[in-house]
Every structure is written in C-alpha cells, then in structure tokens.
Amino acid sequence: MAKDSKIEWTHHTFNPWWGCAKVSAACDNCYAETWAKRVGSNVWGRQAKRRFFGDSHWKEPIAWNIEAASTGIRRRVFCASMADVFEKRSELHQWRERLWDLISLTPMLDWLILTKRPQNISGMVPWGDNWPQNIWLGSTVENQRMAQIRLPQLLKHRAVVRFLSCEPLLSNIDLSQWISDPGLQPIDWIIAGGESGPYSRPMNPNWARALRDSCRANNIAFHFKQWGHWVPTELLTDQQKKVVTVGDIEMAAAGKKIAGRFLDGRTWDELPKTA
After folding, report:
1. Could you tell me if 169 and 146 are in contact, meaning their C-beta atoms sit under 8 angstroms apart?
2. pLDDT for 190-222, tens place per residue?
3. CB of 17 closer than 8 Å to CB of 95
4. Residue 169's pLDDT is what?
5. CA pair distance 26, 268, nearest whole angstrom
6. Where are the alpha helices (DSSP H) in 155-273?
7. Count of alpha carbons within 13 Å of 135, Cβ hemisphere only?
8. Is the separation of the CB atoms in 216 and 210 below 8 Å?
9. Which residues, at least 6 apart from 48, have a Cβ–Cβ distance to it below 8 Å?
10. Structural contact between residues 9 and 191, judged by C-beta atoms closer than 8 angstroms
11. 3-class state of residue 245 by DSSP
C-alpha cells in the first residue's frame, strides 16, 4: 500500500497512521478494517490504539517526489487509505503536523486527502483560505443524507481540487443544489463505484448514470471505478449469474474482478482540469 497503487485513480498511497472508527453507512463493510485484521493489527474502533510508523516510511514520498521531479511528471498520492486524516483524537495531532510538513516538501506530488469527517477540516489545517496547490480535498458521499451533511463542510474550502468519492454508492444522489450554490466552491471531480466483498450491497446502475450525466452537464470530471461485487446480469454469462433485483434492474454477484468497470460500454477515467 505505497508506491504504484492498484487503486485506479491514484499512483501511490501513503498512510500517516493506521486505524479509524466507523461513522456512517459507507463504513459498514470497511475494506481497511478487514485488511488490518487480516494482518493482525487491532486498530479499529474508538477504543483501539492507532498504529504509527518510523522515519523510513515517512521518507518514501520524498523519493517519489524526486522521481517525479526528474521525469517532470506529477504523481497523485492517496492519503490515507487505512485511516482518516481528520479523525479527532489528541494523539494524532503531531502526526498531522508532520503530514503537513511532508506535503510542503513534495511539490511534485498531488496529495488526495479523502475524509468522512469534513466538519473537522477547518480546525485541523494551518492554511485558512491559502491552501497548498498540491492538495486535492475530498469527502466520501455514499447517499443523499451524507451529501446534505458533508458537502457544505467540504465545499467551503479553497483547495485547488474538491472531489467526492461516491463509493460505495448506496443510493441515488442529487447534487444540483450544491453545484448551483454561488456561496460554495465548485465540485471538480466525482469518483463513483459499487461495493466489493462478500457482504457488499448492490448498486443500481442508474445511480451511477445519474452522477455521470450530472458531471457531463456541469463540466465535472467523472471516474467510474468499479461495479464491485454486483454487476448487471446483461454483462455476464449464464454461468456467472446469481441474481437479485435492484429497482427494476437484475444484478448478479460476480465478484470485483469479473464485474469490471465498464459503464454503458466504456471506461470513465476523467480527471479534474488541474491534472
């Protein structure tokens, strides 16, 4: 989970620490919790300790920055796949400060900071309205309720890019009121996708299509990451179908690898203009 990430929308991942606590429906089947338990790290929940790392770990992005500078090609770093940078715990403060310093030392890396706690951002960053040009700030928005709660908190910040991760996408989401609000910063990028894993919840394809169409109508970059565990039966052979109905669409449990990431006959790999 470092250099050359398998996540489609980033190049590398960096975790300032491991561990988190669940805060909404998107967390129900958290892949990071599952992975931590698989490798024997008890770091999940409000009472669990967080796992921290030494200097060699923190030097890795410095090397990525040197490589990016030598090629002249910027690289994206997802921070943090195994934690939430804006979790409110006193022992995390010194590690956040170290992260801010690291970001300033790596200007050829675009840091994609994704949170489910955007209400905490203002009290934890040192920049006010003068955000570094290499931070893309995002929030998970899995359903309409979380859009109502999180988007006003995210879109008040003047980061160079503001993005949404609508994965797992658990309902239709209407973004029109925030797209048209002149008092908020614009949405630059939307990542959408279904949930993976054996306990995953199926995503209605029309929810993803609605986000895509909203992006196309409002000049927002759209990335369709995956179907996840469930995929429309029309994309499968008869032998691959184990069917449920979501709305009026048949979906089958096929697994992430078989399901793939084609939406209406193509991949969607758009990036915000600054990229």
Report:
1. no
2. 999 999 988 999 999 999 999 999 999 999 999
3. yes
4. 98
5. 22
6. 176-179, 205-217, 256-259
7. 24
8. no
9. 19, 42
10. yes
11. strand
Cβ-count burial of 266 within 10 angstroms (0-12 exposed, 13-18 middle, 19+ buried)?
exposed
User: Side chain identity at 68, as an amino acid letter?
Assistant: A
Tokens matching residue 32: 């990071």
pLDDT tens profile 13-58: 999 999 999 999 999 999 999 999 998 899 999 999 999 999 999 9
Measured between alpha carbons, how far is residue 160 from residues 42, 84, 89 in Å?
A: 35, 20, 27
SS3 94: helix
Torsions phi, psi of 101, nearest 5?
-65, -40
Indicate the burial class of 129 (C-beta count within 10 angstroms; 0-12, 13-18, 19 or more).
exposed
Terminal-residue alpha carbon distance, the chain: 22
pLDDT of 150: 98
Contact 189, 161 (CB under 8 A): yes
Task: Quote the CA–CA distance of 66 and 4 in Å, as a whole number.
Answer: 15
Spatial distance between the Cα atoms of 187 and 161, rounded to a whole number of angstroms: 8
The answer to whether the beta carbons of residues 106 and 75 sit under 8 Å apart is: no
- In the chain, the amino acid numbered 218 is N
Nearest alpha-carbon partner for 234 in 247, 248, 252, 221:
252
Token duo for residue 224: 């369709």
- Amino acid type, 235: L
* Three-state secondary structure string covering 44-83: ECCCCCCECCCHHHHHHHHHHHHHHHHHCCCEEEEECCCE
Helix (H) or strand (E) run with residue 246 in it: strand 243-246
Task: Sketch out the chain's domains with CATH numbers.
Answer: 12-259 (3.20.20)
Residue 237 confidence (pLDDT) above 70: no
